[in-house]
Specification:
The protein is of the alpha/beta class and 207 residues long. The chain is globular and about 65 Å long. A hairpin with a 2-residue loop joins strand 14 and strand 15. It has 4 helices and 15 strands. It has a 7-stranded mixed β-sheet, with no helix packed on it. It has a 4-stranded parallel β-sheet with strand order 2-5-8-11, with no helix packed on it. It has a 4-stranded parallel β-sheet with strand order 4-7-10-13. Belongs to the transferase hexapeptide repeat family.
Length: 207
């Protein structure tokens, strides 16, 4: 055996609350890597419902890497939620038309960019990730956190707004892990290393 089939929707037999996410999402602006899973208390179809304000006309993307773990009720707030903040009013007059359609002529709503989630990232229950945030490989987002700024690789953050709690490893180990990029290895090599990947001795990884 070389691990579960990455192209199956439900990798756990007789359990349909955990899915390999790439096989569930339908929106082309949500891009998900192999083996990333989503676990929902009710229905895995809730994932796309929790990607908020993802409008085609805005054009932003939610990009999630490989081997990520996403808990129930995690929310992603996309750029479609943004309003003007340096104007006298934040109200979106133009969307209602009827004489207000030119309210945004020569102006544009704030656009903070895509949300990018790295590889091997664990996002805890009910966390919220804001537009434009980049979360590095190996990061952990604590339950109920609101992430408004970028998260460095292999960093644990929590709170509202989320702040750094600690690094998962010393800097030299983080550097080596980022060089190894184990999530890009072929599945045979990953399978040979699963016991080492669940340990904490980087020198034991089979090259």
């Amino acid at each position: 055996m070389m691990g579960p089939d990455k192209n199956i929707k439900f990798p756990l037999e007789n359990y349909e609350r955990l899915c390999f996410l790439k096989n569930v999402v339908k929106n082309p602006n949500i891009i998900v890597g192999d083996y990333t899973y989503y676990d929902d208390f009710e229905n895995v179809e809730n994932f796309e419902k929790n990607v908020k304000y993802l409008f085609d006309f805005v054009g932003d993307k939610l990009i999630i890497g490989k081997f990520c773990m996403i808990a129930s009720d995690v929310k992603f707030i996309m750029n479609g939620a943004n309003h003007l903040t340096d104007s006298l009013s934040t109200y979106p007059f133009a969307i209602f038309g009827r004489g207000w359609e030119n309210a945004m002529q020569g102006k544009s709503y704030p656009h903070k960019g895509d949300i990018n989630i790295g590889n091997d990232v664990w996002i805890g229950y009910n966390a919220t990730i804001m537009a434009g945030v980049n979360i590095g490989d190996g990061a952990i987002i604590a339950t109920n956190s609101t992430v408004t700024k970028d998260v460095a690789p292999y960093t644990i953050v929590g709170g509202n707004p989320a702040t750094e709690i600690k690094k998962r490893f010393p800097e030299d180990v983080i550097t080596k892990l980022l060089e190894l990029k184990w999530w890009n290895w072929d599945i045979e090599k990953i399978t040979k290393n699963v016991q080492n990947l669940t340990g904490n001795k980087i020198e034991k990884l089979i090259q």
